[in-house]
Amino acid sequence: MLSRLSFQKQRLIIITSFVAIPLILLLMFAYYPTFELFHLSFTNWDGLSPTKDWIGWDNYKEVFTDSEIFGVFPHNFAYFAVGIVQNIAAIYFAIILNSKLKGKYFFRLLLFLPYILNGVAVAYLFGYVFDTTQGSLNSLLGAIGLGSETSWLGSEGFVNYTLASIGFWRFMGFNMVIYLAALQSIPGDIYEAASIDGANGWKQFLHITLPNIYKIIELNLFLTVTGALEVFDLPFVLTNGGPAGASETFVMKIVSTAFQFNNYGLASAMSVVLLVFVVVVLGIQRFLLSKGGK
Prior knowledge:
It is found in: Cell membrane. The protein is mostly helical.
């Protein structure tokens, strides 16, 4: 039937089909759930009742006035701080492994390998590492005389940094590979010319490497910020928000509000607040980095 049509009509139908199918999927699985999320945030739906009573802005008022809800946001700062250090380490290793180092492909694989592991499996793995009595980390520290009874996951002061260090181990190799790809796109002739002109390694990094990977740094910082704000699996598996809620993240609070207390309206409002917060933070990051890029 299609063959009977003119070439222009066939072309129009094919192009329309290729555009319509992904657009329909996008509307079904992205925009409609987002719209429904906004709608539920103004109700007190319990997840089971067929009726959804409209309560206006009450859920949002509770989010910002209840310290137990909005007060968990500072717990995410540790993941952001460690994420910045992680990016610095990733750039460092990318530069080293982009050189003529013997065995560099093995080291690239070694550093990237943690990223392909399942997040829950990684959490259980480090549960044995950070165990207070029989953990391998405390055993190592005890063997070298630095103490062997540190409660890495039981101290309110640094439990979030302990959990964030697991993310450092897992995601640093991923960021390194992205930076490595960016470094390999820089022509080697530029470095040779800079060496001839007397530029040392530090000057080459500041004036050649850094400007050429600036957009990639911006991308990785985007991933770092979103990852820090949306942490869930590590604290959920290892501490379940403890001790005394010290490691509970905002996403954990959303999940418990919805599935434990059956308050889907409030959980939806919290999700909208998180979405807006992520957009604002990334907008500020984009503005600051774009000014730095100029």
